Amino acid sequence: MKKILLLIFAFISFNFLMADDHQSYTTYTGEVLQCNLQNGKDVEDVLNMVKKDWYALDYPVPYEGWVLTPTLFADNDGGYDLFWAGFTSNNSDMGASLDWFNVNATKVFGKWQNLVSCASWSHWDIFEARRPANQLVEGDTGYWAFHSCNFKDGKSVSDLGANDTEWNKFLDGIGHNGGVWRWWAGGGSDTQNSTDYYINISFSTMKEYGEYRDARMNAMMSGSMPEQIADCAAPRVYSANNIKAITTN
Fold first, then answer.
1. pLDDT at residue 173 above 50?
2. Between the N and C ends of the chain, which has fewer C-beta atoms within 10 Å?
3. Residues 6+ apart with CB under 8 A from 95
4. At 186, which helix (H) or strand (E)?
5. Is residue 176 within 8 Å of residue 214, measured between CB atoms?
6. Cα 240 to the center of its chain, rounded Å
7. Tens-digit pLDDT profile for residues 178-222
8. Are 128 and 202 spatial neighbours (Cβ–Cβ below 8 Å)?
9. How confident is the model at residue 246 (pLDDT cuts 50, 70, 90)?
10. Is residue 10 within 8 Å of residue 98, measured between CB atoms?
C-alpha cells in the first residue's frame, strides 16, 4: 500500500511541477523483457536477428528499441543474459504497439523465442531529467548505468525539480553529453520491490562513465556535490545497442 500511495503522489506532484512551470519533463513509456539465451545461441545471434527482422517492422506509432547486455553486475542480479527495452511516447501508444505487434509480428516474435527465453515483461513510466546533447541515430551503441533509489526522510517527488536543476549544472560542468531518465514501475513490475524509482544515465563510452564516477568522487571529497535527496545503490551498467530509433510514419 505504501508503494501504491507513493506512486500516486509521484504523478500528482509531477503534474504540479509541470503546471507550476518549475520543471517541464518529457515523458515516455517503456517496456522491458528480461531474457536468457537458448542453448547454443549467443548475443550476436540476437543482434543479427533484431537488426534485420525487428528493424523491418512498420509500427503504427513511433517506437524505439534496444538490446541491453550486462557489463557491470553482481551475482544476485538475476543472471539475465540480455534485455529488450522498447519505448513509445505514452502508455496509449505502447498499448497500440502491442495490439499491432500481436497481430502483425508473430513470425518475428517466433524467431525471438527461438533465440531467448524471457522471464518477465514489464512496463515503466519514464521522465527525462536531462536530454542527451546528441540526437539518437539508429545503430548507436553506448552504455546505460542504472541506480535504484529511495527518497531520504523528509524528501519527496516535489523536491525533484530543483534537485534536477542542481545536478544538470554539475553534469554540464564535467562535460557530460548523455541523458538522464527517471523510471517509475508500471504493469508487470515486481510487487515485492521496495525501490521508489530508478535513475538511468547514458554514456557513449566506458571512459566517459569512468570520468563521471571520478567527478562524483572528487565532488564528494571536496564537499561540492549537489544535494542528494535520495539514497541510491551502486549502479548496474549495461551495453546498449539501438535497433530502432523513434520515427513517425
1. yes
2. N
3. none
4. none
5. no
6. 10
7. 999 999 999 998 888 899 999 999 999 999 999 999 999 999 999
8. no
9. low
10. no
Are 184 and 10 in contact, with CB atoms under 8 Å apart? yes
188 is written with which cell numbers? 508487470
Q: Which CATH number fits domain 2-128+141-244: 3.40.50, 2.60.40, 1.10.3470, 3.30.70?
A: 3.30.70
- Neighbour count for residue 59 (Cβ, 10 Å): 21
pLDDT, residue 247, reads 52
Cα 243 from chain centre:
15
Residues 59-68: pLDDT tens digits? 999 999 999 9
Cell matching residue 68? 541491453
pTM above 0.70, yes or no: yes
- Rg for the chain (alpha carbons), in Å? 18
Mean pLDDT, residues 133-139 taken together: 85
> Which residues on neighbouring strands pair with residue 232, listed in sequence order?
149
Extract the C-alpha cell encoding 183: 523510471
Report in angstroms the alpha-carbon separations of 128 from 89, 150, 199: 12, 18, 10
**What residue ranges do the domains of the chain occupy?**
2-128+141-244
**Bridge partner residues of 35 (DSSP):** 82, 118
